[in-house]
């Protein structure tokens, strides 16, 4: 026991330093830490400035790329327009050569022996047998019917040739490599048309009774929709020729909204 009467437990408690004197960094250490912090902040600000400069350079490169794309597209359009013009001139020249009249060649007479009426010898008077009146009437009626039928065929042929001649040298055909696919704007938006028949086109958004995109499906026919309005290949070529004569630019899509056939359409079309 100690002098005050307390029993000792055998442990020794060393002397402890005051709290305000424990683990206190020196001013030099604080200044060094502040200097390191300032250096880190400067490095961060420098990295931010470099990032901003890189973004500005990227935006400038994007602008230059967009301007180059616009110039390329304008050059492609000018090239396509020139190719279309040359193709139209070539077609006109080809049609002009085809429409030229070729000289007619007549077959020479193979038998060059002159005809002499004195070579015919008649031994006796010729006997003429009477022809029945009914036979004459039937023959006359047959000739009249044949005569009435021929002008219709001839008139059709003349009308067809006249229609071809009216097109003249300005007849233009569709070329898929230089001309875009025709469209229809009946819904207010340009919709590409489908190929139909031999060079013809079919609408993808309208019929004679409805105008919508896509066209309604046939309820009892799988993978089929209501057929759109149509235009034959010959009618489309005539339309192209008329537009070319009016000065229309054929390098842009042709709107067939007001040029479809007036008759009905097929029952349905297959969805592709």
Automatic annotation (TrEMBL):
It is found in: Nucleus. One of its GO terms (molecular function) is DNA-binding transcription factor activity. Residues 32-73 form a coiled coil. Residues 1-22, 135-164 are annotated as: Disordered. GO terms for biological process: response to ethylene. Residues 1-11, 135-144 have a biased composition (Basic and acidic residues). Its main location: nucleus. GO terms for cellular component: nucleus. Residues 146-160 have a biased composition (Basic residues). Keywords: Coiled coil, DNA-binding, Nucleus, Transcription, Transcription regulation. Belongs to the BBR/BPC family. Transcriptional regulator that specifically binds to GA-rich elements (GAGA-repeats) present in regulatory sequences of genes involved in developmental processes. This is GAGA-binding transcriptional activator.
């Amino acid at each position: 026991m100690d002098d005050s009467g307390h029993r000792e437990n055998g442990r020794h408690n060393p002397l402890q330093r005051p709290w305000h004197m424990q683990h206190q960094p020196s001013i030099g250490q604080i200044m060094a830490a502040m200097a390191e912090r300032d250096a880190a902040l400067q490095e961060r600000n420098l990295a931010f400035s470099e990032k901003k400069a890189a973004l500005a350079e990227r935006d400038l490169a994007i602008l230059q790329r967009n301007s180059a794309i616009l110039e390329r597209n304008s050059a492609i359009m000018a090239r396509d327009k020139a190719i279309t013009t040359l193709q139209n001139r070539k077609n006109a020249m080809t049609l002009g050569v085809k429409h030229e009249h070729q000289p007619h060649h007549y077959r020479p007479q193979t038998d060059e022996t002159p005809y002499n009426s004195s070579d015919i010898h008649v031994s006796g008077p010729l006997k003429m047998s009477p022809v029945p009146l009914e036979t004459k009437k039937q023959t006359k009626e047959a000739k009249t019917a044949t005569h009435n039928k021929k002008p219709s065929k001839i008139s059709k042929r003349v009308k067809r040739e006249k229609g071809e001649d009216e097109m003249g040298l300005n007849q233009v055909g569709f070329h898929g490599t230089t001309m875009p696919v025709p469209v229809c704007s009946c819904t207010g938006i340009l919709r590409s048309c489908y190929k139909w028949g031999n060079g013809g086109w079919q609408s993808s958004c309208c019929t004679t009774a409805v105008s919508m995109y896509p066209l309604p499906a046939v309820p009892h026919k799988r993978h089929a929709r209501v057929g759109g309005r149509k235009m034959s290949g010959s009618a489309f070529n005539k339309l192209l020729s008329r537009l070319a004569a009016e000065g229309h630019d054929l390098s842009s899509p042709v709107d067939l909204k007001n040029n479809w056939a007036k008759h009905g359409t097929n029952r349905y079309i297959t969805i592709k």
